[in-house]
Design brief:
This protein has helices at 6-14, 49-60, 71-82; strands at residues 24-26, 36-40, 64-68. It has 91 residues and is of the alpha+beta class. It has a 3-stranded mixed β-sheet.
Length: 91
């Protein structure tokens, strides 16, 4: 995905979105995690510095953060998380 245009970034800001926060949150605890945060990226998409810092902070607070690069991976990560089959650090 290409970098956002200034206009798109301004719209996101007005909507209350914060740069660096993962795209989705599954707000269901699954021991040992409080919730699952998901960042969607293309095969070549890179995690920004802000995203890395936020992912680290979320992980330190007991949340699991994962980067998903395909529909198949997304379809597998939810049941794996709910059945506690994911490693503690995935991002």
């Amino acid at each position: 995905m290409a970098k956002k245009t200034p206009k798109a970034a301004n719209i996101d800001k007005k909507r209350g979105l914060i740069a660096g926060i993962p795209d989705m949150c599954l707000a269901v605890p699954s021991e040992p995690h409080h919730a699952l945060y998901i960042e969607f990226k293309t095969d070549k998409g890179e995690i920004s510095t802000k995203q890395k810092i936020i992912a680290l902070n979320l992980s330190l607070q007991g949340y699991l953060v994962v980067v998903i690069r395909s529909v198949e991976e997304f379809m597998q990560v939810i049941p794996d998380y709910l059945h506690r089959r994911l490693p503690s650090q995935k991002c």
